[in-house]
Write a structure and sequence with these properties.
The chain has 266 residues and is an alpha+beta fold. Helices cover 32% and strands 32% of the residues.
Length: 266
């Protein structure tokens, strides 16, 4: 019998929540609020986000408390994530009543890695490499910039991020992959390893190269490397219209849905 119960899977996803260098966290018994650094932002990724809220207090009281902090940061609003784990149960309805608009929805998916490898029918013309050198690192970074519409980082920022990625790779705490078609870099994706957990994240493909197997190739290699380095469970958030169907075909199971609401505070 598997030790990965639904409760353990959802707890693991919370524990693996991304908090990059430069982030500011407000963590209480009732919620976790993160102010992400400017370098991590893009048009679809708000600066302030409530990533967890589970409280016995009035949700209106919690919203007012969070809004006060977000105003101190001089931000116009906060993205608030809700799922079946959110308490009280009327949190989502209260966010809507206060003017919150749904901006995103993802599936929380997981796959145990002790069985057969996922058969993803990766096309032979897709080449995948570990991002271990500066050439591959810069190519992967530029793909992310193009897909998410981020501001192109300075040479100093790229050098700093490359040094950090190199340190992470040396300890296998995280790694990144780059996929190419015909010698052209077209997709990338990352994985963070912690004990027996593998958190898959940041997989993107240039729009003109989608539906040609690059994402599947990145996924298959991340699962292989994660298992080779001791992971027994892979965790990921997938969208129903893009990665979700591929992940389900690869043996992932859905454990919850997470919805995000944009709540203005000014």
């Amino acid at each position: 019998m598997s030790s990965w119960t639904p409760r353990r899977v959802l707890d693991a996803m919370v524990a693996m929540e991304w908090s990059p260098d430069g982030a500011i966290e407000v963590r209480t018994d009732d919620y976790r609020l993160i102010r992400y650094p400017d370098w991590a932002l893009d048009p679809a990724f708000p600066a302030a986000q409530v990533t967890r809220s589970r409280t016995g207090r009035s949700v209106a009281e919690i919203i007012d408390e969070v809004a006060t902090q977000v105003r101190r940061w001089r931000l116009p609003g906060v993205a608030w994530r809700v799922s079946s784990e959110t308490l009280p149960p009327d949190t989502e309805a209260t966010l809507r009543a206060r003017g919150g608009k749904r901006i995103d929805a993802v599936r929380i998916l997981a796959r145990e890695l002790d069985g057969d490898p996922a058969d993803l029918a990766v096309p032979a013309d897709v080449h995948v490499e570990l991002v271990a050198g500066e050439r591959a690192f810069r190519a992967a970074s530029m793909i992310t910039v193009r897909v998410w519409g981020r501001k192109e980082p300075s040479d100093e920022a790229l050098a700093r991020e490359f040094a950090e990625a190199t340190r992470d790779l040396q300890t296998w705490s995280s790694f990144r992959l780059l996929a190419s078609l015909g010698g052209e870099p077209v997709a990338c994706g990352g994985c963070t390893l912690h004990a027996d957990l593998a958190h898959l994240h940041g997989a993107v493909t240039l729009r003109e190269y989608r539906r040609r197997g690059a994402y599947r190739a990145i996924l298959a290699e991340r699962l292989r490397l994660a298992r080779a380095h001791g992971a027994t469970l892979a965790l990921v958030k997938g969208r129903a219209e893009t990665s979700g169907p591929i992940l389900l075909r690869a043996g992932f199971a859905e454990y919850d849905e997470e919805r995000s609401y944009w709540l203005p505070v000014v």
